[in-house]
Amino acid sequence: MNKIEDVVRLEHVIDPAEVPGHMVKPGAEPIVKASAIEKHFDDNHVLRGCSMTVFPGETVTILGRSGSGKSTFLRCLNFLEEPTAGVVEIGGVVVAASPLHRRDRADEAKIRQLRLRAGMLFQEFNLFPHLSVIGNLVEAPIHVKGMNKKEATELGETYLAKVGLSDKRDEYPSRLSGGQRQRVAIARALTMEPEVLLFDEPTSALDPSLVGEVLKVMESLAHEGRTMIVVTHEMAFAREAADRVYFMDEGQFVEIGPPEQVISNPRDERTRTFLERFLHG
Amino acid sequence: MMAGGGGPAGMSENQQLVTDIARAQEQRSRRWRLKFLATWVLIIVGLVAFILVTVNVDSSFLKDVIPFILAGVPITLFLAVTSIFFATILAALGALGRLSRNPYLNGIASFYVSFFRGTPLLLQILFIFLALPQAGIVLPEIPTAIVALSLNYGSYMTEVFRSGIEAVPHGQAEAAQSLGMNSRTTFRRIIAPQAFRIVTPAVGNDFISMIKDSSLASVVGVQEVLWRAQVAGRPTFQSMQTLLVAAFIYWVLTILFSLFQNRLEKRMATGDRVQRRAQ
User: Fold this and answer.
1) Within chain B, how many helices (H) and strands (E) appear?
2) How confident is the model at residue B56, as a pLDDT?
3) How close is the nearest chain B Cα to the Cα of A165, in Å?
4) Can you give the pLDDT at residue A82?
5) Of B133, B130, B194, which is closest to residue B161 (Cα–Cα)?
6) B264: how many CB neighbours lie within 10 A of its CB?
7) pLDDT tens digits, B232-263
8) How close B228 comes to chain A (CA, Å)?
9) Cβ <8 Å between A172 and B190
């Protein structure tokens, strides 16, 4: 199952629970199709066949205990983590797992194409400390897309305004608060105009008082119809902004559905246990 | 402050205590600095006295010999600057080799580090000057010294550069890649500039060592500071004077460079702000 051509034949199955959200135009094709993703770390079987379908304009969140495999799944979507098996399709770019082979140039170019369609936000922000805020924003447009400096700067300023940090344009990351850093990181991802945004616990490293400003930006992105996949522990965000919640346990999605079902009225025993412990300490 | 509840008498008592403590601390540190300075002065006075007692200092001899030895300073600095330049290039290539997944490149780089770190610099200089001519490769004195110093320091600095690159958090590469950068652009635009800042102090230290180790070039007759001191002192058995002059010259050179290095590091720490003003 290593060659892409072989795997394309592996039909992506849409789970009946993956009902398109209310922002999705009827008949729209899925923008993300992750099929049967497996991941082994040595003899630790972290992901056991996870599939996900996301339609354009949807926000989905992945919930689950620490160590259940949520982040690993997200990182497999843009191949920061090489899955052991499975196929990922984002915006029409299809890449299959190739755990045994070193990828050739064509494969690597394809992975870069996939990454261009998926902007990633990290728990630790990962801003470039040697560049100013605007420098962080123009770096990829200039050096990946080949944009000229003026265009890239205008683009960067637009998205910086969007996250409400125009006044920090020339500041360096070390002089920003955690919340501001994550908002800059969001603006940086947006400058590449990705088709889907992947959030890997974007507020987990933040001081509780700074979580709100980041969630606010994320909510406004969700409401303007951006496609987002969010790994988070923020129940309120999942409840209010998500079209669909995936609950992960021991490397499998054990419950999929709208937030009012998964969070407020879980059917699966494991989801219920997690939520009881989470919501009531 | 506990009992006083803010009464004016209580306040002034506390203030008195605070100023007393501050004054005592100030006094203590002033005394410490005085003792520290006195120790230096004592050692230097002792050394000078020892020299004056044991050696017959001939001031006219010194007057001739000091300019002669000082004339070696440009050569010493030339050796050090040129060699640190080539060593840096070798180290950058070596570090890339050591981090490469290509077994051949990695093999070459690790052999280079192992061999040139594992043999004495003096031997390397002599080998290039005395042994290579047997194989038909003849290098003059100064190139001999530069090649040996560059290769030797390059091998040490390879490991410094490698660890500098590895010290850049992995999330940086992940962020760059998730923005669609290929590995080349990631290294050139994101990893290398950060690694460069990390290794700068170490390169500065190596340069200071290099200034002193360039004296080994004297064995093949490069007319740098130490060579001149030896040549000037030996005929009249006045090596005590000439070698001390040479020692003093090296000492001053390293102190001057350390000062420069301190300023450079401070500048790089606040480099963010400097850059912004320049824009």
Assistant:
1) 12, 0
2) 77
3) 17
4) 92
5) B194
6) 15
7) 999 988 888 899 999 999 999 999 999 998 88
8) 46
9) no
CB distance A177 to A99 below 8 Å:
no
Q: What are phi and psi of A88, to 5 degrees?
A: -120, 130
Binary contact (B275, A119; C-beta < 8 A): no
Q: pLDDT per residue over B142-158, tens digit each?
A: 999 999 999 999 999 99
CB contact under 8 A, A115 and B177: yes
CA distances from B239 to B46, B62, B228, B244 (A): 19, 11, 11, 8
Q: Per residue in A165-222, pLDDT tens?
A: 999 999 999 999 999 999 999 999 999 999 999 999 999 999 999 999 999 999 999 9
Question: Which neighbouring-strand residues pair with A93?
Answer: A90
- Assess contact for A37 and A83: CB atoms under 8 A: yes
* C-alpha to C-alpha distance for A231 and A201, rounded to whole angstroms: 5
Q: How far is the C-alpha of B264 from the C-alpha of B257, rounded, in Å?
A: 10
Contact B185 A126 (CB under 8 A): no
Phi-psi label, residue A224: left if phi above 0, alpha if psi -120 to 50, beta otherwise: alpha
Euclidean distance between CA atoms A219 and A233, whole angstroms = 15
Which of B169, B180, B275 lies nearest to residue A116, judging by beta carbons?
B180
**Tokens in use for B204?**
């500065």
Contact A179, A203 (CB under 8 A): no
Subunit contact B179:A127, Cβ cutoff 8 A:
no
Between CA A215 and CA A199 the distance in angstroms is 11
Q: Is A228 helix (H, G, I), strand (E, B) or coil?
A: strand
The answer to whether the Cα torsion of B19, B21, B25, B28 is positive or negative is positive
Please tell me which of the candidates A112, A170, A175 has its beta carbon nearest to residue B182. A112
Q: From the centroid of its chain, how far is CA B176? A: 33
- Bridge partners, residue A228, by sequence: A59, A197
DSSP A88: E
Whether A170 contacts B279, CB under 8 Å: yes
Listed as ranges, residues in chain A with pLDDT below 50 are 1-2, 5, 7-8
CB B173 within 8 A of CB B191: yes
Residue B88: CB atoms within 10 A of its CB come to 19
Dist CA A80 CA B175 (whole Å): 10
Amino acid of residue B27? Q
Neighbours of A2 (CB within 10 A): 12
Whether B199 and B161 have beta carbons less than 8 Å apart is answered as yes
> A52 pairs with which residues across the strands?
A34
Characterize B173-190 residue by residue with b for buried, 16 or more Cβ atoms within 10 angstroms of its Cβ, and e for exposed. bbbbbbbbbbeebbbebb
Contacts of B273 (CB under 8 A, 6+ apart): none
CA B34 to CA B30: how far, in whole Å?
6
Which residue(s) pair with A64 in the sheet? A248
CA angle B183/B189/B195 to nearest 5° reads 95
What is the bridge-based pairing of β-strands A85-90 and A32-41? Answer: antiparallel
Q: How many beta carbons lie within 10 A of that of residue B171, not counting itself? A: 14
Q: What are the tens digits of pLDDT across the range B19-33?
A: 999 999 999 999 999
Strand partners, A59: A228
